[in-house]
Please model this.
Amino acid sequence: MGKEKMMIMEQKRTDAPDRGEVKSSVLSVVTTAFFAAVIFLGIQSFRIPLPAAVGTPFLHFGHIFVMLAIVCLGGKRSAAAGVLGLVIFDILNGYIHSIPNVFVSTIIKCLLVGVVFNMMKKRAAGDRKKEYTAAVICAAVYGVLNIAVDFTWSVGELMLIGSTLGAALAAEITSIPATIINAGFTVIGTGLLYLPVVSAYRRIIKG
Model:
């Protein structure tokens, strides 16, 4: 009987870490899916058209929630959430032609900004004010990357369909203000929502 009890206790100790890993994996999937849904709703429920010579840009909350996903989930998981949320929106709203750009640019922005934020967060050493500043700075980096990637991609697309480099550049330059507006909106939105969203996320993770 003594040996049987010891075997049972040893089995329980072995199973405990496994249950913890399963719980962590499930929570990771759930939070990633949650952010994907929020990103989708952030565009679907709020859109203000912006003037542009190329494309049909609009002001929306999507980039703000992608940025918040980066600071909560990290680069890789936020890339998955961002791609899912944004691509689902494009499919349901007839922006199929935008999917390649969205797919590539979202992965680039999430991974790069995720690396920058992690570096700045480590330097903050638990200082919440410094972490907040890091998030706002990273939102600005995200906005600049969004402008650069969209500009480059759109110029390339125009040249592929027959435009000269000069014509493509001219058309995209006239469209940059719309992207800059969204970049500024992303920085402001991140600054306003960072504290409540991150606080709620930390409570969920600890819970």
